[in-house]
Design goal:
208 residues; mainly alpha
Length: 208
């Protein structure tokens, strides 16, 4: 138990540490104005990423409480709920991004990147579902490794761009996060589909 707890704590700290180091690197390379533009994207992406976390938390809690029940039945319901939620938010992401850019932030030219931040956050929500599978199964080594992969991918991409001598801009930094988030989300969805094999029919007995 002590080893598992230490492992999870270490991975959580490592993920936050990598995110912080990446922010420091970008702040130094971008300057105040450009980093401010990037921070807007990052903040919205992170907030949207957190929105569906209650679904994953509920899945983990029920699987741990009902160990004799097929965990895939709970995962199937949780994944379907997230698909519905993500689909609705993705459908309104462009008009919402346009409204936020023009009315909330007074930055008409940033509507695309605000929309992209919403899509990126939604994509990362599937990445959270992937890590919750390992958490529910108490496979803490896999959970710890999976939890930091996104942050590792981002900082490696940022460092590669800098070492290649390419000028870092806020738009380029945003594209790194968009690409990393979409890759994480798509790979997570593929893994979940492979694990579940099917989405329907839903075992409604797990709802009671």
């Amino acid at each position: 138990i002590l080893f598992d707890y230490s492992l999870v704590t270490l991975s959580s700290g490592l993920g936050r540490g990598l995110s912080f180091v990446t922010s420091v690197i970008l702040a130094r390379k971008l300057g105040v104005k450009s980093f401010g533009e990037f921070s807007l994207f990052f903040t919205i992406m992170f907030l949207v990423w957190q929105l569906p976390l209650a679904i994953d938390g509920t899945y983990v809690r029920y699987v741990n409480a009902e160990k004799e029940i097929d965990s895939d039945a709970y995962l199937r319901i949780a994944f379907l709920m997230k698909l519905v939620m993500v689909s609705i938010l993705a459908a309104i992401s462009y008009p919402l991004g346009h409204i936020l850019a023009n009315n909330a932030f007074n930055k008409p030219g940033s509507s695309f990147f605000i929309t992209a931040s919403i899509i990126s956050g939604l994509s990362l929500s599937f990445y959270s579902t992937l890590t919750s599978i390992y958490q529910a199964k108490e496979e803490f080594l896999k959970y710890s490794v999976a939890s930091v992969l996104f942050y590792v991918a981002v900082i490696l991409a940022i460092c590669a761009i800098i070492f290649a001598g390419i000028t870092m801009t806020s738009a380029l930094a945003v594209w790194v996060y968009i690409a990393s988030a979409l890759a994480a989300g798509i790979l997570s969805v593929c893994f979940i589909f492979d694990k579940l094999k099917r989405l329907f029919p839903i075992d409604v007995s797990t709802l009671y």
